[in-house]
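Entry 12.
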Amino acid sequence: MTIKAILTDIEGTTTDIDFVHKVLFPYARTHLPDYLRNNRDDALVASILEDARAELGQPEADLETLIKAFLQWIKQDKKVTALKSLQGLIWVQGYDQGDFTGHLYEDAHRCLQQWHQQGIGLNIFSSGSVKAQKLLFGYSDFGDLTPLFSGYFDTTTGHKREAASYRSIADAIGVPAEQILFLSDVIEELDAAREAGMQTTLLARDQLPADSDHPVVSSFDQISL
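Predicted 3D structure (tokens):
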């Protein structure tokens, strides 16, 4: 079956998971208190703060209470929309100031460029927000790569381990599921994509899994379309 579109995960697939957990998340955590204190009157930040109050069930919560709540959500690794939105704004600041660039494996960059040149549609599906996805690829180690991608999908589309999410993405891309190749380092996500009819490949960069009934590669260079 001819592959007409690629759908790829980010963490552990195109990007070293350490970049997210050892660079992006700590940066947001460190800068969050001062960022909120300095930008509390910005309309977008004010909206995020209202969402946080609703999440807490405390409509009168003051700024310092909200800062503590955000930091606690980070500590608990909670998937709170207000936190995701706030982290995205803080990362914009970090990227703009050149505090870091978006990590991308060299083989991923090379193959994504080649596939794009071949006319294969490239799409992202990540638990990180679409905004965070565009920041990572827009400020990547290899420059602005956002023109390579046709679509960006996050968990507003659905859970990454549910087949319905991949059916929705196939509909949005406008390509039959069986002509889409999904790339991920998480077997449960690959299982869901396959259930939806997609072809799959497991990226196992560090250690080959003991058992996987998905095709397994250790780099993008080994992926055959």
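Annotation: The two ends are 9 Å apart (CA to CA). The domain at 20-96 is CATH 1.10.720.60 (Transcription Termination Factor Rho, Rna-binding Domain; Chain A, Domain 1).
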